[in-house]
Specification:
GO terms for molecular function: dioxygenase activity; metal ion binding. This protein is α+β, with helices and mostly antiparallel strands. The protein has seven helices and 14 strands. The strands form three sheets. Strands 1-2-10-7-12-5-4-3 form an eight-stranded mixed beta sheet. The chain has a four-stranded antiparallel beta sheet with strand order 6-11-8-9, with no helix packed on it. A hairpin with a 2-residue loop joins strand 8 and strand 9. The chain starts with 13 loop residues before the first strand and ends in a 13-residue tail after the last helix.
């Protein structure tokens, strides 16, 4: 197993994970990958994983499913249009349409696939099997990722999972149409994610950028790779040891661009757990930098603020 690392002015960590999580038994190999994840999460807040075990056919099928739905008859899509995010499946333009200063150049659909997945009949036929199949694979790889992230913090491998960080999975599938004047808009405005982590599948068109040391850096697509980025919740819980990466998506004359974002967050759904900086990471020299919070409390302010280019984290700093 090879773990590749390329931290330069225009790149970030690329990691090779085992084909099957269960074969990750070589302590030396695992320790090397944990070190690279720690370095990426601390300096960049993002890395890509390859050799993750999700078949290429599954990746292609979910991307095809996104295209099939978005190219359905408008009347079919209209029947799913809603801004009620508690529904099992919704189609919408921009969740932040009425809170941000401008809309983004994309359409989206999705729903919560865990812990209470929708009934198959609640999902459109065009993407039903693809969403269910892909979500199952993502839940499997996320288990390994949360273990490695826990170890990268110097904690037991089960720590983040025991705090229900991977309990809730919200899948959003984006469709960015060709834009005739991409210099006048963005596919998605600058923001960080209100998640623990986000697992992103993007096609080969590109356009995703992350902000690193005041410079926008292209996240160049790697065939078969998944992009993993740290979210706001994990930055707060790690007391800034890991950073929640700010990112955006450029509009493009080429398209449609397809991406599938898997958000590990319960968002506005009921969740009584109170989170805060993990006590094992604190000391007299490293006191808590954030007050405790619940996920719905944080998300309410995040949605009301919209994707306005500012971080919601500052509201929770002590």
């Amino acid at each position: 197993m090879v773990a590749k690392n390329s931290i330069e002015c225009d790149s970030y960590n690329k990691l090779s994970l085992p084909v099957r999580p269960s074969v990750l038994v070589d302590a030396v190999s695992r320790e090397a990958i944990v070190e690279k994840i720690k370095d990426a999460a601390k300096k960049w807040g993002i890395f890509q994983v390859i050799n993750h075990g999700i078949p290429l056919s599954v990746l292609e099928e979910i991307k095809d499913g996104v295209i099939r739905f978005h190219e359905e008859d408008p009347e079919v899509k209209k029947s799913y249009f809603s801004r009620d995010f508690s529904k099992p499946f919704i189609y919408h333009n921009n969740f932040e349409l009425y809170s941000s200063s401008s809309g983004n150049w994309r359409d989206s659909f999705g729903g919560y696939m865990a812990p209470n997945p929708p009934k198959p009949e609640d999902l459109p036929l065009a993407c039903r099997d693809a969403m269910i199949g892909y979500s199952n694979h993502v839940m499997s790889i996320s288990s390994l990722l949360f273990e490695l992230l826990s170890e990268a913090l110097g904690l037991s491998s089960e720590m983040l999972k025991s705090m229900d960080c991977m309990k809730s999975l919200h899948v959003i599938c984006h469709y960015y149409p060709p834009c005739p004047q991409p210099d006048l808009t963005l596919g998605t405005s600058k923001h960080s994610d209100n998640t623990f982590i986000t697992i992103l599948l993007q096609d080969q068109i590109g356009g995703l950028q992350v902000l690193h040391q005041d410079c926008w850096v292209n996240v160049s697509p790697i065939p078969g790779a998944l992009v993993i980025n740290i979210g706001d919740f994990l930055q707060m819980m790690t007391n800034d040891r890991f950073i929640s990466v700010e990112h955006r998506v450029l509009a493009n004359k080429v398209g449609p661009r397809i991406s599938v974002a898997c958000f590990f967050s319960s968002s506005m759904n009921p969740n009584p757990i109170v989170y805060g900086p993990i006590k094992e990471l604190l000391s007299e020299e490293n006191p808590p930098k954030y007050r405790d919070f619940t996920v719905p409390e944080y998300t309410k302010g995040y949605i009301e603020k919209g994707l306005d280019g500012t971080s919601n984290l500052s509201k929770f700093r002590i």
